[in-house]
Amino acid sequence: MDYVIKSEGGYKYIETGDDKQPLILLHGLFGTMSNFDGIMQHFSPAYNVVVPILPIFELPLRKVSVSGLVEHVAEFVEHKKFRKVHVLGNSLGGHIALLYALGHPDKIASIILTGSSGLFESSMGTSFPPRNNYEFIKKKTQSTFFDTEVASQELIDEVFDIVNDRNKAIRVIATAKSAIRHNLGDKLHHLSAPTLLVWGMQDTITPPFVGEKFLELIPNSRLVMIDQCGHAPMMEHPEEFNKNLEAFLKEISATEAA
Fold first, then answer.
1. What residues make up the domain containing 220?
2. E strand spans, the chain
């Protein structure tokens, strides 16, 4: 499904309906809007699904970091005058969601993490991969998923273009290294918002033990494990992912209404 990318106030984003409670989706380091197609289609009737495009390749180089991206999200939420948000992040997006929630607890209705960094991650983003080696990038991109067919030609081409653009590659590496430095193990106990963790059992980037550790460290959390699934459950198993997310959000709504 095609969505119009809005541009205002220095922010670029997709928004499905501004009169409902916001569900903000934060993409990962190599993430694209298409990663969230299943979520946007399923939840748009009930929520204002908002996908800010994280300015990994636009921020001044000195601000390229996880902190810089968290600041961007915080300023975006203020710009949109959102009172409270459900915030969902995949991979690096989960890391950003956690830091935003820690810094702005009054703005958080719930947190949803899937394949989130913040404790441990293994990726190709911390050093220069071989440039102009399409097969290497193809295999690395496919390794994100249990079912390699989920890695579309378009997705592989996008990752290949990023890696072969020196300016973008430098920013990817700087952001990835910043994420590793921002380990959240000693901060997660401060979170109080309801938190849903959705993990792929075959995730090789943030393996299942990472989801289990998040469960241990985040007080009000629950963990759903999906079999035959890698680092992006919302792409590989959209129906199962959406079913669990819908049940979680309905439970929160019922609690708020009680």
1. 6-123+184-257
2. 6-8, 11-15, 22-26, 48-52, 85-90, 108-114, 195-200, 221-226
